[in-house]
Amino acid sequence: DFWREKAKSDPRIDEMINKKGELVPDTEVIASTGQYLKEKSPSLNNLLLDGYPRSLKQYQLLVDWLKEEGKKIDLAILLKISDQEAVRRLSARVVCEKCGTVYNLITNPPPGEKCQCGGNLIQRPDDRPEAIEKRLQTYHSTKKMEFWSRWTESARSKQSLTIC
User: pLDDT for 34-63, tens place per residue?
Assistant: First the structure.
């Protein structure tokens, strides 16, 4: 959600992630992450980072930054699903233009044709199958996340997980 918020005020980021389905370059991710984490959780305890880091460079810089802050990674959880399932789930997301509520047509459908606030539901460009497939190609072409093996608990997910 951090990058979606940033895209609202930065047309270049908006073009990159919402229109082209590209990932934000490591240099920008790294520059923004530490500041964001300290704002959201000054103690840096019990953080859940969803979808970050995405590359070995991001990982190495995160570890270095955490070390400077007197912290470390205790555990990483890697959820594995097929590309086909990822596209199916992600492309089912819709968002209310008015209030920003996110629905999933499969797991959390809206109450009707419109959002409960009366706003129109749209699919963001980065949730379209072609954008998701492009991100998956990038993911598969980068160095795999072997570096996580030290901390990773792995789960294959054919079912939906409830996040509380």
Answer: 888 888 888 888 888 887 887 778 888 888
* CA 159 – CA 66 distance, rounded (Å): 33
Query: 19 by DSSP, 3-state: which?
Result: helix
Handedness of CA 124, 125, 126, 131 (dihedral sign): positive
Amino acid at 130: E
132 within some domain? yes
Per the domain annotation, does 112 fall within a domain?
Answer: no
CATH number at residue 45: 3.40.50.300
Q: How many Cβ atoms from other residues are within 10 Å of residue 82's Cβ?
A: 11
- Domain membership of residue 120 (yes or no) is no
Query: How far apart are the C-alpha atoms of 98 and 110, rounded to whole Å?
Result: 14
Query: Taking the model in full, what pTM does it have?
Result: 0.66
For residue 134, give the 3-state DSSP assignment: helix
